[in-house]
Specification:
The protein is mostly beta strands and 291 residues long. The protein is built from no helices and 23 strands. The protein starts with 6 loop residues before the first strand and ends with a strand.
């Protein structure tokens, strides 16, 4: 997928049979005369491994043209029962806003800004289908937006964490349990949204990572995936780890996918048979079997 000068691949999310990708603007002057691009998609329906997947960059902007997209979340088609072939997703922006997107069957694009309730960039999005809530996280604030009632349902400040929420995920069977990815020595925190308490911290400790203080790790470009009880994550050394939240003493799997220096920015578990990983240079789709 071609990119514009000064724009970098920031994040990806599955939405039906499409992989949605988001871009952020890295060089303030690079796009002064070149239109910005924030959203693109790749069609995953073609099963021919030799074929180049059909893809498209969208000209529509969902966030400030000077910044771009910092998070994405695929949404179920059940939110639009009258248009089952519509691709639905949400994006969080560096401009502190959350935007709802539709790609119609004709590939026409519709979007609506939902809210700008955060005081910093929106690095985390997750959807709870049982309650119809779109969760977003940025800085020390987590917001739940009611997609059916079109209103803010809950806003939680988490200053006690003294860290920034980078990503969030919902437990499959308990929508009140959130998995937060934070900038801290241990990257993951299970959080009870109903009681607003931290349950447990886990992860591999990393120290002296560029861009953070001693004893911390950067998670800006290292988004994990939470499916049932499994957490899959990559790191800046190209290592994939899979955790089982029922036993967090050590990872259940640890695989070296890339050489040192090839940071795995995001991992997506797609059911029991497919895993997608995103690096600075693109993404890979792999066969996967849960242990």
């Amino acid at each position: 997928m071609d990119q514009r000068p000064g724009v970098g691949l920031e994040v990806a999310a599955l939405a039906g049979d499409r992989l949605i990708v988001g871009f952020a603007r890295y060089k303030a002057k690079a796009l002064a005369t070149d239109p910005s691009v924030q959203i693109g998609w790749v069609d995953l329906r073609d099963t021919n491994p030799q074929a180049v997947p059909r893809h498209r960059l969208l000209s529509e902007l969902g966030h400030s043209a000077e910044t771009g997209v910092s998070s994405l979340c695929g949404l179920p088609s059940s939110l639009q029962p009258d248009a089952p072939n519509t691709t639905l997703f949400a994006s969080g922006g560096i401009d502190h806003s959350v935007t709802f997107w539709k790609i119609l069957e004709t590939e026409l694009v519709w979007k609506e800004k939902l809210h700008s309730s955060h005081k910093s960039r929106v690095d985390a999005l997750a959807f709870c289908p049982t309650k119809g809530l779109l969760w977003s996280g940025g800085g020390s604030t987590v917001v739940a937006y009611d997609m059916r009632g079109e209103r803010i349902a809950l806003q939680v400040a988490v200053p006690k964490f003294d860290v920034s929420v980078c990503h969030l995920h919902l437990h499959t069977s308990d929508p009140n349990v959130l998995l937060l990815e934070v900038r801290a020595s241990k990257r993951f925190r299970l959080f009870d949204a109903r009681q607003q308490i931290r349950l447990v911290d886990f992860g591999v400790e990393e120290t002296n990572v560029e861009g953070t203080g001693a004893g911390t790790t950067t998670t800006k470009f290292q988004k994990a995936s939470f499916l049932e009880n499994n957490v899959a994550s990559g790191d800046r050394k190209g290592i994939l780890r899979i955790w089982d939240v029922r036993n967090l003493s050590k990872p259940t799997q640890q695989i070296k996918l890339y050489p040192d220096g090839h940071e795995i920015r995001q991992v997506i578990l797609d059911g029991d048979s497919r895993l997608l990983d995103l690096t600075k240079w693109g993404f890979s789709v792999r066969d996967y079997t849960r242990s």
